Amino acid sequence: MTVSILHCWKKRSDSPRRRTSCWLALLVLWATLVCSMADAAGLEFRYTELVASEQEYLINAAVNLQMRPRLQEMVEAGVAIPFRAEFSLTRPRWYWFSETVAEQVLDLSLSYHALTRQYRVKVGGLNRNFSSFDEAMRALLSLHNWSVVERSRLRDGETYSVSLRFRLDVASLPKPFQVAALGSRDLDLTTGWTSWALQIPREPR
Questions:
Q1: Per-residue pLDDT tens over the stretch 168-202
Q2: Fewer beta carbons within 10 angstroms: which end of the chain, N or C?
Q3: What is the Cα–Cα distance from 101 to 89, expressed in whole angstroms?
Q4: Where are the alpha helices (DSSP H) in 88-172?
Q5: Max CA-CA distance within the chain?
Q6: Across-strand partners of 194?
Q7: 3-class state of residue 69 by DSSP
Q8: What does pTM read for this prediction?
Q9: Could you read off the pLDDT of 109-151 as tens digits, one per residue?
């Protein structure tokens, strides 16, 4: 399937009917990819941690993604696959709703450049090129030293709730794939929210 899709995708002078056939083939492959990942739990965190530096708190995390061969077919056929990491830090309050202290998002994507035969991973505003799909996937699914909140915003002696999610960013897909995603739970690929408590120690007086 990969060879035939790539073959038709490279012929930019093809007729509208042939281009439509290519899009339909990609949509079928996309649906197969997503349904397979959904059946295999799709996305899940391998580990998550929030670490303190001198001035800020940083997120480190790694995500497992199933069905990589089909994902590679999609990327090499010319479709950039977008993901989004989302962070939330709240302070519980017994008398009211929790206070939102910080929220951050980080956009990531994986694409393929046929001329250079390089996989490109975009993390925020940073682009990195890789010669192999596996290397690119490791970079895409790893969050390293992501700055999420300044230490000065957290109060000594308080307990906070940290939440993290990693998901497919359907809204950033090409329009035909967005249409295919409408009303489909199978296309809602996400780790779900992972939460844990953060206790800020009191400074000795």
A1: 898 888 777 766 656 555 556 899 999 999 999 88
A2: C
A3: 5
A4: 133-140
A5: 76
A6: 164
A7: helix
A8: 0.77
A9: 999 999 999 999 999 999 999 999 999 999 999 999 999 999 9
Residue of 62, 67, 95 lying closest to 81 (CA atoms):
67
Among candidate residues 112, 53, 58, the one with its CA nearest the CA of residue 85? 58
What's the burial of 193, exposed, middle or buried (CB within 10 Å: 0-12/13-18/19+)? exposed
SS3 of 70, please? helix
The single residue listed with the structure tokens 């950039």 is: 80
Q: 71 Cβ partners below 8 Å, 6+ apart?
A: 33, 65, 81, 137
Report whether pLDDT(203) > 80.
Answer: no
Q: Is the pLDDT of residue 6 over 80?
A: no
Quote the CA–CA distance of 131 and 129 in Å, as a whole number: 7
Please say whether the beta carbons of 167 and 130 come within 8 A.
Answer: no
The region that residue 42 occupies, defined by phi over 0 for left and psi between -120 and 50 for alpha, beta otherwise, is: left
In the beta sheet, which residues pair with residue 163? 88, 195
Distance (Å, rounded) from C-alpha 140 to C-alpha 142? 6
The phi and psi torsions of 52 (rounded to 5 degrees) equal -100, 130
CA distance linking residue 33 with residue 187, whole number of Å: 9
Instruction: Read off the pLDDT of each residue in 88-103 and give the average, rounded to a whole number.
Output: 92
